[in-house]
Amino acid sequence: MNERSDIHDLFLNHDRIKRTVTNLPDGIRTVTESDDPQVVEVIKKHVAEMGRRVEEGRDPGLPIETRSDLSQVGVELYKALAGGNV
């Protein structure tokens, strides 16, 4: 997998992506959706890789991250009826 290429594709197709963030009592829930099947596949690849990073405790050291304790992060991937959700 080429992570850099996937992230680049996500940025280029940001207008085809809907992201919803919900504050929860114990954290946040983010839902990332697209009606474009190719964008959905890139989202799924990206989330799977980020899930592996979390499980392995690998911090990519990106400045956009705010949580230092990856043991508190969970990832759930599911397919919606219309398009794809993560």
Give a written overview of the molecule:
The chain is of the alpha+beta class. It has one domain (3-85). The protein contains 2 helices and 3 strands, in the order H-E-E-H-E. It has helices at 3-12, 37-56, and strands at residues 18-24, 27-34, 84-85. A 3-stranded antiparallel sheet has the order 1-2-3, with helices on one face. The radius of gyration is 13 Å and the shape is globular. The two termini are 18 Å apart.
SSE sequence, one letter per element = HEEHE
Number of beta strands? 3
Tally of distinct domains: 1
N- to C-terminal distance: 18 Å
> What structural class do you assign from the helix and strand content?
alpha+beta
What spatial form do the alpha-carbon principal axes imply?
A: globular
- Estimate what percentage of residues fall within beta strands: 15-25%
Mean pLDDT: 76
Low-pLDDT windows of residues = none
Q: How many strands, what sense, and barrel or not for the largest sheet? A: 3 strands, antiparallel
* Strand order in the largest sheet: 1-2-3
Can you count the helices?
Answer: 2
Tell me the Rg in angstroms. 13 Å
Percent helix, as a range, is: 25-40%
